[in-house]
Amino acid sequence: MANEDACMLRKWEDGNDPKKRYLASLFQLARGIEQNFMGGGGKRKRTSSLASYLLNMSERLFAIRRVLKDTGVIYLHCDWNAGHYIKIVMDVIFDKKNFRNEIVWCYSGGGIPGKDFPRKHDTLFRYTNSDIYTFHVIRKPYKENTQQVGIHSTYSGKGNKIDLERGTPITDWWTDIKTVTGWNPERLGYPTQKPLALLERIITTSSNEDDLILDPFCGCGTAVHAAEKLGRQWIGVDISHFAVGLMQRRVLDPENNLGLSLSDISVHKAPLTADDAKRMALQDRFKFEEWVLGYLQANQLQKGRGPDGGIDGILEFYTLFEQDEEGNVKGERQGAIVQVKSGKVTPDAVKALHSTVLTSNLTAGIFVCFKEYKNTVENVLGNIKDEFRDVSGSYPVMQWLSVEDMLNGVDPKLPVLRPEHGGRTVPKPIENERLM
pTM (2 decimals)? Predict the structure, then answer.
């Protein structure tokens, strides 16, 4: 546990808030379990502290309860790592009487362990702030065998005939929503990305049009995307500038058909104009780099603030090598190195990116900088004639993109980007995927 977390824990233990004092004892319990019962002679294998996670999550949940309306609803999504601790935290902060559901979201895909049951579900805890709250029943079609029985039966639990056309209410066991993996057109490469259908179900069930939706851990912006699509107001918050850039681009991207422009949204601590971007670059080049990568929806590789080997991020795309008369496509997933420069650009910097591309197993390089360095970049790129091809045409191995053009919705020149990038959509699932 970090020093600042230990200080906060002592304040909770010595304070006057009974809920915080009770939770402090839970955190100490979690801390003791980690130190003594995690295996390896009392040495934790985890790099982060469970007690610190619970402490910081609780602090944020207290803040959320303060702003949640009396008629509001909160969903907290977690996996097997800390779900049983989080349930206790939620019982304390939101009161156990306000617990409504433990929703189990089941999915498939990924690896299969040899000595354990595959972990293929997440948990969503649903709490309210009072006994008065919004809940809209969502229904799904009856299974085929139930439909056949229903034709001849008048029993539906209350002596009424089964309403086959209306369907049956969904329960707290969700098996019909797939994760965002592989070739899924929603996929942005964000590690914790959730499917749009999951957030649409949550928002539809627990809110009305024009209600305000808050996601304080917004990540790649699926919640705000769903909220806008369903006619709700929204606020998305994230500590990562990469996530803010990704979220910003996602809601403004015309391919997502949300109909939003810059004048429709308010962005705090992230650029909306080239001048904003320049100020950010001067203040903190690392945050600027994170924001650019998020805005381009490129996978961020570097988490530290050290040398990156000329690779700031990887932008995924697809090269298509077969396309029949019906439009069926086969292809391979490729990667373009993204290099972001926040200040002065030299010819050597552009040449270095080209060298990195040639020595890597990646296909292309994209140099991002401000438009004032256009001549420097283009003078170097003019001497680089390398191209790669697929069935859709030929593309330069090396290209550049100005921050100004990026903010105006210009994309790198690549064959097939994910639909969120504004590229052409692959008609059918890509086979023989190979992540470069």
Answer: 0.82
- The amino acid at residue 275 is D
Distance CA 43, CA 33 (A): 11
Summary mean pLDDT of the chain: 85
Helical segments of 211-306, H only: 222-229, 241-252, 274-283, 285-296
Identify the three-state secondary structure at position 336.
strand
Query: Which residue's structure tokens are 């210009």?
Result: 410
DSSP codes joined into one string, 16-55: S-HHHHHHHHHHHHHHHHHHHHSSSTT----SS-HHHHHH
d(CA 251, CA 223): 11
| Neighbouring C-beta atoms of residue 327, cutoff 10 Å | 9
> HSE of 60 in the Cβ direction (CA atoms, 13 Å)?
16
273: three-class secondary structure by DSSP? coil
Which residues make Cβ contacts (< 8 Å) with residue 235, sequence separation at least 6? 212, 213, 214, 215, 224
C-alpha separations of 82 from 123, 165, 202 in Å: 10, 41, 22
* Contact present, 415 and 165 (Cβ < 8 Å): no
Tell which residue, 384, 343, 345, has the closest CA to residue 365.
Answer: 384
> Roughly what angle, to the nearest 10 degrees, separates helices 83-94 and 50-67?
30
3-state secondary structure of 367: strand
pLDDT at 48: 59
C-alpha dihedral, 285 to 287 to 288 to 292, nearest 10°:
140
> DSSP string spanning 174-200?
E-S-----TT-TT----TT---HHHHH
Give dist(CA 91, CA 4) in Å, integer: 25
> Which range has the worst mean pLDDT, 230-239, 265-274, 319-328, 408-417?
319-328
List the end-to-end C-alpha distance of the chain, in Å, as a whole number: 38
pLDDT category at 310 given cuts 50, 70, 90 is: confident
Answer whether 132's CB lies under 8 Å from 70's CB: yes
CB 302 within 8 A of CB 241: no
What is the Cβ-side half-sphere exposure of residue 366, based on CA atoms within 13 angstroms?
25
DSSP letter assigned to residue 298: P
In angstroms, the CA 244 to CA 239 distance is 8
Strand 139-140 versus strand 233-236 pairing type? unpaired
Q: Which of 220, 214, 274, 280 is nearest to 245 (CA)?
A: 220
List alpha helices for 297-407, DSSP H.
347-359, 374-381, 403-407
Q: pLDDT tens across 327-365, in order?
A: 666 777 889 999 999 999 999 999 999 999 999 889 999
